[in-house]
Amino acid sequence: MKTMINVALTVLLIGMIGVVITFNAFGKEDYNEEKVIHNDQIENIQIETDSTDIIFIPTTGKKITLQLKGKLSKKIKNVYKLEVEERENELNVIVDRKNKFTFGNMVDSIKLYVEVPQKLYETISLKTTSGDMKVEEIKGKEISLKANSGEINIQDGTAENSLNIKATSGDITMTDIQGKTLNIKANSGGIIAKNQAAIDSEFTTTSGDIELENITGNIEVTSSSGSSKIENEEVSGDIVAHATSGDVMVTYSKKPASLEVDFRGSSGEGVIDMDGFMYEEKAEDVIIGKIGDGVNKIRVRTSSGDFYLGN
């Protein structure tokens, strides 16, 4: 018995020594690679990263600055490569990671910081395979943000024509966004949007909740597995909502003067908590009616979920 204990202690000691040796071998140091673009004619920006976070922020200057920085093990400091291609009014940026199979403690918070002059761009496309994305004060006619495995956070953005955001596995958070048409999709994650103005906004989740607050314009929400919640001060457009498995809730701070409602649920209950609502048809799973002339419309379809409308 004593022999077994001694053997176990010896193995444990050897393991601890190995951890110490490994930690020292993979000791981290600061990594910083910077490239500056002195071309004020850039109108189209395309950025792709493998496993790197993207931080996209404005600058009052006239140059575009790209900084790839963080901490890396001394043994793999050349694993990342910042590739920049500039052609007339186009800028293409790729962050390539040569060795995809590195230990977790060898890499720490490598991020790509992108500083761009404040102006309206023709197109902006940001894509990361495995990393988060934070975007501030972005302005473009066509904007596309994609994260295969990571979260997307965008604040104070303007898309003159269209804004397309897609997160395959991660949440999407949006604040103070303006645009013509917005298409927001999260396959496995939720969507939170506040203070948004657009002609048409579409929000889709496969597995996750949708939370909208102070959204003006026409709204369409689709959720396969998750609830949808819309909180607006007043009616400013039509709402179409589809929920396979989840509730749909719509509330207004100010009572609507003109609103038409069409709710049908396969397995769910509809509730209208609003004075002055005139029912044309009322059942547990069907509600049709309106307030006033019914200029603005709410159409809700649920397979397994309830619907609530109130103020």
UniProtKB/TrEMBL annotation:
Domain of life, source organism: Bacteria
One Pfam family from the record: DUF4097
Phylogenetic placement of the source organism: Bacteria, Bacillati, Bacillota, Bacilli, Bacillales
Ranges for domain DUF4097: 42-307
Protein name: DUF4097 domain-containing protein
